[in-house]
Design brief:
The protein has 200 residues and is of the alpha/beta class. It folds into two domains: 6-92, FAD/NAD(P)-binding domain (3-Layer(bba) Sandwich); 99-162, no CATH class. The protein has helices spanning 12-23, 39-42, 74-84, 99-104, 109-124, 139-146, 154-162; strands at 6-8, 29-32, 89-92, 173-175, 178-180, 187-188. A three-stranded parallel beta sheet has the order 1-2-3, covered by helices on one side. It has a three-stranded antiparallel beta sheet with strand order 4-5-6, with no helix packed on it. The longest helix is centred in the middle third of the chain and has 16 residues, at 109-124.
């Protein structure tokens, strides 16, 4: 057991890192905020399939079983990752990953939201002047509602203030080749697709 080696996140990347570290002779602890491995995959729609062939999508040290087909379905991929994580040291559920989260975790959610917004304003100033909208839900409320963690990166904030990043209104609907927004004139959508042969 070696608690000095810690991996944050039990998704495909975190599990692959744990496998490589275990192979090197250490026993890492994998921390995951959700209650199970591959949490982001569990929240996706149930008809989802990998868009890459299983031969190119497996974790190190364990191929995806042939029974999953060439493009594994969501549930097959989750089961594969669950089996892949067997024997790893996992700590699942409610791991706070940010100093503010650790400080606020015992407060009511509305206080958590208010404090997080105040800290963000102190750190970055009023980003609303640059078109960055104030979210309807506070960050802690949003995380509990749908598992999404909101973070404002200081590099992004600097770029926004310098004009290197420009906020655009959300898309309301697609109208043929035009993109309709609730607050702006229609704009033409330019899409480029790339195709390559799928492996047999």
């Amino acid at each position: 057991m070696d608690d000095r080696v810690v991996i944050v996140g039990a998704g495909p990347a975190g599990l692959a890192a744990a496998w490589a570290i275990r192979r090197a002779g250490r026993d890492p602890l994998v921390l995951e905020q959700a209650d199970a491995v591959a949490a982001s995959w569990r929240d996706r729609h149930d008809h989802l399939r990998l868009n890459t062939h299983r031969a190119f999508s497996h974790q190190p040290g364990a191929r995806i079983p042939r029974r999953c087909g060439p493009y594994p379905a969501r549930d097959d991929y989750i089961a594969y990752l669950q089996e892949y994580s067997a024997g790893m040291r996992l700590r699942l559920g409610g791991v706070p990953l940010h100093p503010v989260s650790i400080t606020l975790r015992r407060l009511p959610v509305r206080w958590q939201d208010a404090t997080a917004r105040a800290v963000q304003r102190l750190a970055f100033g009023d980003l609303g002047r640059f078109g960055y909208p104030r979210p309807e839900l506070g960050p802690f409320t949003r995380q509990r509602a749908d598992g999404v963690t909101i973070a404002v990166d200081d590099g992004f904030a600097r770029a926004l203030k310098a004009g290197r990043v420009v906020m655009k209104p959300g898309i309301d609907r697609f109208d043929g080749p035009a993109v309709r927004s609730p607050t702006a004139r229609p704009a033409m959508l330019s899409v480029r697709t790339c195709r390559r042969r799928r492996p047999a």
